[in-house]
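Please describe our next protein:
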Amino acid sequence: MAFTFFILNTQLSYAVTTKMWANTDPVDISKGKLQNVSINSFGRFTLSPGKNKINEIPATYVWCLVADGADSLFAGTGNPGSIFKVSHDGDVIEYFKTPELHVQALVIDSTGNIYAGTLPHGRIYRVTSKGEGEMFCELPVPYIWDMVSDKSGNIYAATGDNGVIYKITDNGTVSILFDSPSSNILDLVIDDAGNIYASCEPEGLIYKITPNGNASVLYDADEDEIHCLAIDNNGVLYAGTSSGTPPVLRTPAPPAQPEAQLQLLMENFPADPTDVWLNDFLSENDIEAAEPPLKNNAYAENGMREVPVIPEMNSIYRIDKDGRVRRIFAVEGFVLCMTIDDNNEILVGTGNKAALFKINTNYEASMLYDFKESQILDILSYKNGINYMATGNNANVYQLSKAYSREGTYESVVHDTTYLSSWGCISWKGKTPSQTNITLSTRSGNNRKPDNTWSDWAMGYHSNGEKIISPSARFIQYRATLTTDNTGITPSLDNVSIAYLPQNQPPVIRRVEVATPRHFAVDETDNNNSVNMQETTPFSPDDLYLVSSHKNHKTATNEPRKLIYWEAEDPNNDRLEFDLEYKSVDESKWKSLKRDVKEVNEFCWNINRIPDGYYQARITACDDLDNPLEFALKEEVESDSFLIDNTRPVVLNLKTVIESDAIDSHGSPGYTVTVSGTAKDGMCNITDIQYSIDSGGWQTTFPEDKIFDSTEETFLLTIPYISSDEHTIVINALDYEGNIGSSRIVFNP
């Protein structure tokens, strides 16, 4: 069981320096394993109150508890619908057996008579102090969810499925105190003035009903169900919610009782981080199959089997006498019951995994226990600081004492250091008053879930800052043991931290690209001004540009360039520096190009003195900036081969054919000129052929086959009109590497 409640605060730092795992956030602390240890909202460990399980009760649910003046405890159960008496020594006897499926509510009067509200027939039974019982009255409803009594001995019953509160006098006379528009009144409490407060579903309302039956809405919650109420010594009201995904009923077993199905409409409840502390005691991946915990699902035991209910985030609200409402607690799960103890502190029971919480008068919450059972269904605050809890699935009654347990342990979650690590010291902060002690132990392994391949628990560390002796590994876990020789006091543990040195990992170079700058495009939306490896339309021959390695702009140049671009990272977040080398593909020795490149991932290389041919570049990344030389690691990656071509293409075989049939736009005669020729490059493809007439603008022409796909392209261009003067036509050929070859032809028609 894991209720979320310490953050694995691994400090992000450069290099393979010592790191710390510290339990400072209560959210993750509760994912560990608790035994007789409590955790408060600040992540502090203390010993839990002493817990004693009374003998198991032969039922499925213990729905309710009452106690008489003779220190006898009575439990109302479901399946069967009986009343059990629990003696001082823990003996359990069936005190009275009803013919009903569930005893949902119990009250006891001043003479020791017990009144039991049942379902699914809405009957109330009266049982004398001698264990003799009979039906006291029958209400015209199927479900009695709760009952309270006033100072005059009147009983008030919360019912469903018509949402009526009935008043029953001591002679069994039944009348309607309040007929609500809700389907179910689920819980009742009564104050010293005789005002009754009622919770309901599916509207999520809290009603206040005066003794004469005048009703008003005290609060309208966002949740669909207010499940339980409690009122403290100062008249402050507390309300707990139970929202979740409703169950789906399966095929019924033999229908011994009516098969009424109460439809619950429940919604998610978003926690508000701006509220007073909201404790996310999350049950991560730990929602187990269980019978439904809700009072309004109890009747489903009548021959119906259900799939588990999935709880959502639920809350406890404080409602002051002036009507002011605020949320003081949040939990993933159903808030099923609560009570106010002798110290005016709130005890809260949850499902569908049973956990017990305490909220002190400063609204600091502690998780006291989690249980193997599915639900805590009722809590009875008894005298002398003794409290009792009733559970369902399985049906048990627990006694909680005011004294602390003598010993408790906490096993942390498993911490993943990511890499094989060496351990330093274990440190903690806490208090160990006289007669108390804290001992810590560790174990380690290389798989996420501890098993027999892990090391044994290392001998206890008794002093703060002791060296961890568990073997080096990737995963580690600690166990804290709290003990006391005086059950009136407890040690406290505030946090634990473990120092470790992860194994250094080599840098990772994911990509190396080499291309002509004009084949790169700068992404204007990239805040890092990185270069995108995408091919673009070649620039005009008069506008050969390269991308600066440090600026997001283009810089004109006539010198041939290559842009080397790489992507690299370090698993340890070390800073990296890079060495750049190159060589011809037919050479074996690498030549240095640039050393100790830092903080950039691109380099603009002037290749004007590099012979034509095919080359490779090599990037070496090293993390020695953040590691001693003996720990520093390198990674090198070679690029694919790339072409260096600094030789201009040539334009050959220029010829003109002149015809005299042209007419210009004004009707003047002229000439049509056809120019043919060949553009040729020794290394790479021709990518563009352009021409200019008499120093005019550049115009593009295509090869004869209309496709630039070869190192040699023939072309034929037609000039539809030209005058009889002397003319000069310049032809430029552009190759893939941006080299321009030029030729011209002069003619006079």
The chain has four domains: 19-48+408-502, 50-404, 508-644, 650-747. The radius of gyration is 42 Å. Residues 27 and 264 are 30 Å apart (CA to CA). Residues 1-14, 246-309, 521-557 have pLDDT under 50 and may be disordered.
